[in-house]
Amino acid sequence: MDFAEAFEKEVDIITLSSLEQPAQRPSELVFRDSVLRERMNLYAVA
Question: Has residue 28 been placed in a domain?
């Protein structure tokens, strides 16, 4: 079973360090908020 099947949605993997960098554009803030709202630890689910 792959991640998409396990989560029943499309999965993108992003490093925490990329989320911790300062946003350069307003769209990055929106993206970051969305990611932080939906994130989950992979080891807790697998």
Answer: yes
How many domains, the chain? 1
Whether 2 is in a domain gets the answer no
Whole-angstrom distance, CA of residue 22 vs CA of residue 17:
10
DSSP one-letter code for 9: S
pTM (2 d.p.): 0.55
**Model pLDDT for residues 1-46, shown as the tens digit of each residue:** 577 888 788 877 888 888 888 989 999 999 888 888 887 776 755 4
The span from the first CA to the last CA of the chain, in angstroms, equals 10
Q: Could you give the CA distance from residue 14 to residue 4 in angstroms, rounded to a whole number? A: 15
